[in-house]
Amino acid sequence: MHGWWGKVLYVDLTVKQVKEVTLDPSYYTDYLGGRGLAARLLWDLNPIGVDPFSPYNHLVVATGPLSSLPLPSSGKVQVASKSPLTLGYGDGNLGSMASFHLKRTGFDAIIVTGAFRKPGYLYVENNRVEFRDAEDLWGLDAFTAEEKLVREHDRNTGILLIGPAGENLVRYATIISQKGRSGGRPGIGAVMGSKKLKAIVVKGSLEPSVANKEEFRRLTEEAYNRILRSDNYEFWIRQGTMGTIVWSNQNSCLPTMNFREGVWDEYESISGDLMEKLKVNRRGCPFCNMACGNVILDDTGEESELDYENVAMLGSNILLSDLRRVGEVNKLADKLGVDTISLGNSLGFYMEASERGLVHEKLDWGDYREIKRLTLDVAYRRGLGAFIAEGVARMARSLGREAEGFAVHVKGLEVSAYDCHVAPGMALAYGTSPIGAHHKDAWIISYEVKTDRLGYTRDKTERLVFLQDIRGGMFESLTTCRLPWVEVGLDLEYYPRLLTAVTGLAWSLDEIRVIGSRIYSLIRAYWIREHGYWSREMDYAPLKWFKYPLTKGPYAGHKLDFQKYNEMLDMYYDLRGWDERGVPRRDALRKLELEYVIPVLEKIIELK
User: Fold this and answer.
1) CA-CA 20 to 30 A from 551: which of 126, 181, 564, 605?
2) Using CA atoms, how far apart are residues 361 and 370, in angstroms rounded to an integer?
3) What domains sit in the chain, N to C, each tagged with a CATH number?
4) Over the stretch 499-514, which tens digit does the pLDDT of each residue have?
5) Rg, Å, the chain Cα set
6) Which of the four pLDDT bands, split at 50, 70 and 90, describes residue 131?
7) In whole numbers, what is the pLDDT of the chain averaged over residues?
8) 115: three-class secondary structure by DSSP
9) Angstrom distance (rounded) from CA 227 to CA 215
10) Calpha distance 93→275 (Å, rounded)
């Protein structure tokens, strides 16, 4: 096959055995790679109901058919497992040289099962695998550990590793690479920690095959030039995602005080405009000509790589109003391997609980010293930090019904940085994201702002499904970055054309959308299998947006309408081919060639 190697590397840490597994070609043509391949492999390999921290929970690190090839922003790698935060399907992607090197080992994915008895790491060079001791790395922060691994293996390697948060099983621990790239919000870093797997180091030298090299060269040259000529390119290079701070405040969706408000009087103190003045460097992923990693010197004088999500969640959401201080907390979280979005959300939740008198240990809004202390304590599960390390959903359950009314999460995953009191489409995007509340699957809020901000319409729901199929289906599985399309307007048609040139198979955007739909229904089936039930309440946006209206800004007094949200959810289910509970219908599963999930689901739930 062109574009895929057709095989994966299966590694058992318990017995230190390695197998090369050849997959049926349908695994690639039906699921592409990345998220699609990971979801199918987890369905096949994970025991039903496995504990996420069990050695039998598999970790999948997957590339896609466009990974490592010289095309716009192709340097992404997908990490996936059963989530210790949500107990459902969990994944994330990160831009890293690990993507480049993994694809060039001759394998499309590494699958890890079992657990080391003592801390170790994997070294994979082409088809050679070594199990290496990591006792001298265990306990080190991710930046220091990576420096030691670079000295051991040289800079021309791809390194994925965890910090103390992963080692201590923080439920929203991530996987880190290149001192600031972080992926796997639903606790995929904690899965590595449970396996005593400190790092995966990959080095590949094999050249992936391309079916039509001349057409591929022509398309990539044209696409790169289109990006450079985009009207938004110059501003993007200056601010990247940090430009969203001002936009979100203008449009009443900047998370403020645990998503209490959508505007903040001090937004300029963390804005992209200020970041421009402080910027000392810019970082990007392999093969990217629109690098988005803006670097400032933080409060300690060290480099911190910023983007919108971590600045909003560690800034406005907890009222920390100094960008250098936000940068310090962000860098600290990255060093420790803590997800910055869930950290900012969890701290904001605890601050509101403190304000309401629901907890004994007080934490004030914007208390920089305590925020830094607690970030460390979360990673090491010390004192109050051990409580916050459990995440918003578990904290709220332990505090009671009042707390559950202001806990901002979906399915256990904390909401990322868009307040949705007046954004029903974005609220539904969070509600139906396949990993819990995450913007990466459908950033529909910009469409809402431009069109029908307060509408609960079928047109908006259709747009949401389209965005999920493209963003969460196509981009997460190819595996490439969505930002060339989203931010500088690269035509979507380049992607099926590139896929055609690489694989030699004819692809259209409509055919890729079918794969996206297949992936979403498979992941929904996985959630049902693991939880043993399903109800539409699991697709509800956070109660806070329905219960407490905004009090500031142009939309003061507004909140989500519960009845209209439910009507919109019905539209969504209809478009997906799911029943009124959110369970895929039998005929929809057959149409998507997911017949193999039917007998499993029939033992758990009635299929319609």
Assistant:
1) 564
2) 11
3) 7-203 (3.60.9.10)
4) 999 999 999 999 999 9
5) 22
6) very high
7) 97
8) coil
9) 18
10) 25
